[in-house]
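Job type: complex structure
Entries:
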Amino acid sequence: MNGGSRVTTGIKQIAKLANVSISTVSHVLNASAPIGSEVQERVLGIARETGYLAKRRRKASISLLSTVLLVGTKKAFPKSDRNFVAWTMLNAFRKECQSRGIRLIPQIEEENEINPDNIVEAVAKHRPQGIAVMQDDRQCLIDMLYNLPSASVILSGQDQSMRVDTVAPSNRFGAKLATDHLLDLGHKKIALLTWGNRRVAKQRTEGFLDAFRQAGLDVPVSDIIDVGDYQQDVVETNFSKWLSKHNGPSPYSAFFCSADNVALGAMKALQNHGYSVPNDVSVMGFDNALFGELSSPSLSTIHVPMEEIGHVALNLLEEALTLPDGERSARRVELGCRLILRNSTGSPNTSFSKS
Amino acid sequence: MNGGSRVTTGIKQIAKLANVSISTVSHVLNASAPIGSEVQERVLGIARETGYLAKRRRKASISLLSTVLLVGTKKAFPKSDRNFVAWTMLNAFRKECQSRGIRLIPQIEEENEINPDNIVEAVAKHRPQGIAVMQDDRQCLIDMLYNLPSASVILSGQDQSMRVDTVAPSNRFGAKLATDHLLDLGHKKIALLTWGNRRVAKQRTEGFLDAFRQAGLDVPVSDIIDVGDYQQDVVETNFSKWLSKHNGPSPYSAFFCSADNVALGAMKALQNHGYSVPNDVSVMGFDNALFGELSSPSLSTIHVPMEEIGHVALNLLEEALTLPDGERSARRVELGCRLILRNSTGSPNTSFSKS
DNA sequence: CTGAAAGCGCTTACAG
DNA sequence: CTGAAAGCGCTTACAG
């Protein structure tokens, strides 16, 4: 190895960029001497921006987690519109593992459900330090995970028995955020388009209702419309039927849809029936899937930080491995969702009366 | 400095203890060479047990967080039965800061509420890297925190707008755990003793109701008794009145109390009225405060991991400082609660009929 | 409060 | 798969 100019972010480089000595950088990073506050801020700023701090932190825990068993069902793996959300999460998780030098052992079930026995077997075989389970939080699975020696975490799930770590977006608060926004715009009658009985859908429904409860309004349980599925074309067909039967969207001036796919299907149905979005009716989605940006009009939605779920999941596994077993409670982490305002929402058209 | 025998946990010491070379330890810790799995496990085990891994991790982030502003109201600071829970949390947080070498700047409000303006002032003056707020999650405060340059976290609170990090025990799931246990014991009529309108109390009430909902039973909204306060003596007086008026605890065979203080007051009132706990009625608390262990009978309760809240809060602050601002969603962390079974609960006495 | 220099801790290229 | 040895990165005792 020659003394070439390989650019490894280190204390040396930071010293150069901050125009101080190496010692000073070290002192700042370790609070080992009383350094002036301007210098301190400059050095820390550069250390953060160059990614040195993040690298240092990552390195500190890398050893603990060399092998992780990735558990999921087949349907989340190929990329498609249908499973866009699951795929995004999974892919971000894989990337994160790669950047931390963690070996992933996939344990993909052919069936629609994860079989706990298969996990036990895979753990015995590969002896991973950690287990990451995708979108399955049934109690039989949780019981099994809890009794395993490895640390484990469920991505996009929750454990009511509070024994296993979980990370998920804040579906309920996110839905409240969306509904609050529609209420703030002045909409009085808002319908929720949702589908089925999955936990995620239920949580979003609760958030929708929360917004009305907290505003002191009547809780609109009768304004919840189940469109039967979350595939765009199916939603379009079903919601078209609903529109025909109800003679247009009236009395609703806004539709909050508990997934972007649902929103896009609904928007098409509305447009086919001659309604202009957002002039006649507002439509709001949930997920911030890529294709929502490209629709016409572009879809207002709730951003779900799918990329961060993997990051947090790995942090939880690492923390579980650092701390002695008896001294750590299970953690349930919810990640904040953000309102993304595009062109499918607006104030209600007060002269609205179409039929 | 002489070459004396100072015992600094390091890679050298681990090598000695594990009977391998320094290089090998390094390889294991960095996965930089394919090391045999027995050796690997031995080295990692020793590295964890000696606290080397934890130290390494702590060191990696120590630089970020040298000064933290601790914000709270006066009432949580002196130690007493009344504020046992708040005091425990606060104290654990202080200890954690100390062990990580973080300087705490207390900003204690004389009033019963935190004044956002005072925080802004204190931040301008002391320029802390992080802000830790105790038990206050009003939106005006959150708005202020969100607009501040420092990272911030609320201990024992939650942010519905999902912009500021929070850590809290899982009150709702914890209450469900307690209620599930009473149901499992065979109790059919269970009353909830609670007080006031604070968020914590409300969350525990929801958990109580959840247990019935999920079991497919009637939701016992009419079995919620507000005892007006959480001080033991007040509860005792108020609940005694209730017992006199209702001619004993019938038809309830169990009382779930949303705080240990409430449970102890209720237990005394029951005993004064001639009821034996748990033979005639079961009583369950929530908090796992010290004095519950010493009561007679000792109190079954829900353990709340107050000591861990501080640990998690600091981890959140550190993480916020490591990651670039735009790339991180706010996090809401809930810590798992555990059932603590002592002597105040049992199966319902089927021949129970006292008056 | 900041830096030059000594030196410790850890990593790494290479040998076996 | 493991270790001896060279050497880099970071810390620290000390000077100013």
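Summary: Residues 1, 20-24, 27, 33-36, 39 of chain A lie near DNA strand C (CB under 10 Å from a C1'). The domain at 171-304 of chain A is CATH 3.40.50.2300 (Rossmann fold).
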